[in-house]
Amino acid sequence: MSQELAAPLPRLTVVTLGVSDIRASIAFYDALGFSRRLKATGEAVAFYDAGGPVLALYPWDQLAADATLQDAPRPSTFRGMTLAWNCRTREEVDAVLAFAIRKGASLLKAAHETDYGGYSGYFTDPDGHPWEVVVAPGIEVGEDRRVHLAD
C-alpha cells in the first residue's frame, strides 16, 4: 500500500542575482541599506535580509555554471524579470528613487502615475538588474515594512 505524499508548501526564499563585480555589488547593496548577513562568506557570495526572502549576490559566471547554463552571451536587454521595492506613499517612491541614484543606481524610468492607479519608477543596479519602486492599490506596506496583499 503506497501513501501519497503531501504536496510541499510553495515559497520563495532567496533571489540570487548574478553579478559581474561582487565587490562593487556588495558596496552598492550595502549603500542602499540592505542588511548583510553571513558575512563569513566574504566575497564568495553575499546574503542580505530583504524583509522576507533573502537577496543573494553571486558571481555571474559561477551562478551560470552552478545552474548548468551558458555564461555567454550575457543579456544586455530585458531579462524577463524585475525586482520590486514597494512603498507606502508616492513621496516615498520619489525618495527611494533619488536615494538609489545617489548610491550608484541608474534611472531607468522616472516615477509616474500608472494606469492601474499606482505610482512607480525604475532603476537598475550596477549589473542592469531592474528594480521597480512602487506604491500600488491593494498592496499595503505594513509597519514591519513587509508587503501585505488584499484577499
Would you write up a description of this structure?
- With 151 residues, the protein is an alpha+beta fold.
- It folds into 2 domains: 10-66, Roll (2,3-Dihydroxybiphenyl 1,2-Dioxygenase, domain 1), CATH 3.10.180; 81-151, 2,3-Dihydroxybiphenyl 1,2-Dioxygenase, domain 1, CATH 3.10.180.10.
- The chain contains 3 helices and 10 strands; from the N terminus they run E-H-E-E-E-H-E-H-E-E-E-E-E.
- The chain has a 4-stranded mixed β-sheet with strand order 1-4-3-2.
- Strand 2 and strand 3 form a beta hairpin.
Number of domains: 2
Shape: globular
Largest sheet: 4 strands, mixed
Strand order of the largest sheet: 1-4-3-2
Structural class, from helix and strand content? alpha+beta
Low-confidence stretches: none
Helix content: 10-25%
Q: How do the helices and strands follow one another from N- to C-terminus?
A: EHEEEHEHEEEEE
Radius of gyration: 17 Å
Count, helices = 3
For the record, what CATH class of the largest domain applies? Answer: Alpha Beta
**Mean of the pLDDT scores?**
93
Intertermini distance: 40 Å
CATH architecture of the largest domain: Roll
Strand-residue fraction? Answer: 25-35%
